[in-house]
Design brief:
Elements lengths: L1 E7 L6 H17 L7 E6 L6 H12 L5 E11 L2 H13 L4 E6 L7 H6 L2 E4 L7 H20 L7
Parallel strand pairs: 1-2, 1-4, 3-4, 3-5
Helix pairs in contact: 1-5, 3-5
Length: 156
């Protein structure tokens, strides 16, 4: 199952970009034998200032056709790392070809796009900057693969 992170905003060169690249590389190596990956990113920017609705349109266009859509949202379901791993495994085992993780802009994700999502995940009730959410998501995707592979990376 191919995974795509679709996010509003650009992640500049720096520590966050380096961490996302590192976790993506690790995931691609670990996930491939498990039928997971590759993990790709697609960044969108609303240069016309159309707000959440315009961002939602750009995000929707970046989601692969037929992909399972999972939003990252403070109203989403809070999962443990093993629960997140089990969710990815279930999507894969259900025969999903693609899953897209959607990260909104400063104002969040347009309600219409949130309503269309198959799942919504929260990294807690706090609001996080998109650059940190992307790092945390990349790490959790990698961690999920290590859990599914039985690797000692995830400590109980």
């Amino acid at each position: 199952m191919r995974l795509r992170v679709v996010a509003v905003g650009r992640l500049r060169n720096g520590p966050e970009r380096d961490l996302v690249a590192d976790y993506t590389t690790r995931f691609d190596r670990t996930g491939r034998p498990l039928g997971l990956g590759p993990l790709t990113e697609l960044e969108v920017e609303d240069r016309k200032g159309g707000g959440m609705a315009a961002e939602a349109e750009l995000l929707a266009r970046a989601i692969p056709s037929g992909a399972l859509v999972c939003t990252l949202d403070e109203r989403g379901q809070m999962l443990s790392s093993p629960e997140f791993a089990a969710l990815l495994a279930r999507w894969r085992d259900d025969g999903r070809q693609d899953a897209a993780f959607v990260i909104g802009g400063a104002d969040g994700i347009d309600p219409a796009l949130r309503a269309r999502a198959d799942a919504s995940v929260s990294f807690g009730r706090m609001v996080w900057p998109h650059m940190l959410v992307r790092v945390m998501l990349a790490e959790q995707i990698y961690r999920a693969a290590t859990i599914l592979a039985g690797s000692p990376y995830h400590r109980v």
